[in-house]
Structures are given as structure tokens and as C-alpha cells.
């Protein structure tokens, strides 16, 4: 089944919207004060952060190379780095090393010896789901490969796979039960499996009304994949038939790594509902993001024609 172009735009614009609308609430007093100073462009548009920058880098790499090319991706991540986007500390150090000429393989384990378990690979994983929307096996391989460039820790990779799979399922308009079943098929790390068990509540519709605080405590609101990906999936599934702004308000109330949790949830929500349902506000590079989403959609259609012809 070919997904509508509106759902591709919805996914990428949902990611950027969640990022830009969540960024003012990320971090402590100092980070919020800084974002008040640099959180708008000269034209008054809401700026997005590293989450969207790295997602666009990944999309541009996939479109240019026609496949996941780790060396090309590492170079684009390094070229795209700017301190004012609020990169994770480990990722910032890795990208500066790559800028100085170090190879990505050794750079990626130079900060954390097993590689990062931050949510930085998960936050860009929706892009892989868009590009490989017609080929789940290829999507899974590309998600792992794309994560490894900066996040080679099993939890960093595992979180990326969960977000890619959930985005894929919502893009295909799978039911919540089917989405959870697919997630369960692609979740093997015991630390992640135990958190996925929380979602058994979705089969019991009476327990959907968790308070933000309870979600922040039980699923997390941190910067690691393990403490943010499930919260994002919860948001997308709970609010998939509700307004984006309601989901955003819940994400802000959860606190913590709001830009990233809202970026991941926004990508999944947008994949399910399309761009036409997203709030309209002054967003940095909105037209360009939409254009990239359409190119991903076209690339997917071309790939599908190739699959059908062979
Ligand atoms: O994962 P990453 O790119 O961070 C993304 C976050 C998002 O919230 C963005 O919006 C941006 O603000 O940053 O960055 P990393 O630095 O790789 O990981 C994030 C954090 O997780 C690190 O700064 C550490 O605090 C923690 N972390 C680890 N701590 C100890 N040992 C990640 N991996 C490790 C580890 O192996
Ligand atoms: Mg960010
Ligand atoms: Mg930050
Ligand atoms: Mg963040």
C-alpha cells in the first residue's frame, strides 16, 4: 500500500514541530533561559534543535546515496553540527572529532566505551521508516546501521528500532494492538522488554488515563533511549485520535527531555494523521522540511515500483 504524501509530511513536520514546541521546556533553569534568547529565528520562527537537524541530515543522506551509507551520514552529521542546536554532550564530542578527521567507527566509542545509550539515534529513526516504508527488513537493517554511527550501545540501537517500528506501523495505519505486537516482535533487550510490558494497559481501555507524572515516573522523561522512547510511544498511541496540541500539553507536563520526547511522539502522530491535522505556526524551514518529506515519499514509490518489477 502506498502511503499518502500528507502522511510523509505529517511525520517529518510532526517531528520538527514537537522538537521546536518542546525545546523551550527542555532542561533546567539555565537551558530554558538560553533557549528564550536563541529559540527564534530573525523572522520570528520557532527554531528546532539537534533532533530535527540530525533527522534532516539523515534524510538528505538517504536521498543522495539511495541507501544507508554510514560514512556519508557521519560526514553530514559532522557538517550539520552547531552548538546552538543543543546537541547531547556525548554526540557533540563525537561530531567534533569527526570534523577533525577521525573516522566515525573509532569516534563513536571515544566518549562512552560501549557507545552512547542516549536517545539521539531514536529521535531521527522516523526518517528511516519513511524511506524504507515498503520494506520492513531493509528498514530494520538501516535503522541499526544509522544508529551505530553515533549510538552503538545496544540500548541506543534498541530505542531507535522501537521508534522506527512504531512509526512504520502508524504510517501503515496499523491498529494500536497490531503496533504493539510489531514492537514486541522487534524488542529483545530485557531492559526494554520489561518496559514494553507496561503497554498491556492498552488492551484494558479503562487504564489509559494516566497522569503525566505517573508516566514520567513509570516510563521516564530522560535523555536516554530507555527512559524516553516508551513515553513517546505512549503519547502517540494515547493521542493518535486526539488533537496534536493535547499530546503536546501532556508531553510538556511530563517534563524532562521534552523536545526529544515530543519530536518522536510528533513524528508518530504525524505519520498516523498527516500534515493537514498538525497545528500551523511559524516553524523554521517549514517549506524545506515539507519538500524533503515529499522527496522521501517519491523515493519510496520508486523503490516500490522496483520491488514490484523484480
Ligand atoms: O543521545 P544524544 O545525542 O542526546 C540527545 C539529547 C536529546 O535530548 C537532544 O535534544 C539533546 O538535548 O541531547 O547524546 P548523548 O550525549 O550521546 O547521550 C545523552 C546523555 O545520555 C549523555 O549526555 C549522558 O548523560 C547519557 N549517556 C551515558 N551516560 C553514561 N554512559 C549516554 N550514554 C551513556 C553511557 O554510556
Ligand atoms: Mg534537542
Ligand atoms: Mg539539550
Ligand atoms: Mg532533547
Structure in a nutshell:
This protein has 16 helices and no strands. It has helices at 5-22, 29-38, 50-65, 70-80, 89-99, 104-107, 125-131, 136-148, 154-171, 176-185, 190-196, 212-218, 229-238, 244-254, 258-273, 286-309. The longest helix has 24 residues, at 286-309.
Overall radius of gyration: 18 Å
Structural class: mainly alpha
Order of helices and strands, N to C? HHHHHHHHHHHHHHHH
CATH superfamily annotation: ADP-ribosylation/Crystallin J1
Strand count: 0
Q: Which stretches of 5+ consecutive residues score pLDDT under 50?
A: none
- Which CATH top level class fits? Mainly Alpha
Shape: globular
**Second-tier CATH architecture:** Orthogonal Bundle
Number of domains: 1
Strand content: under 5%
The name of the CATH topology is: ADP-ribosylglycohydrolase fold
Task: Count up the helices.
Answer: 16
- Measured distance between first and last alpha carbons: 17 Å
Task: Report the bound ligands by name, code or SMILES.
Answer: inosine diphosphate ribose, magnesium ion
Largest β-sheet summary? none
Can you give the mean pLDDT? 95
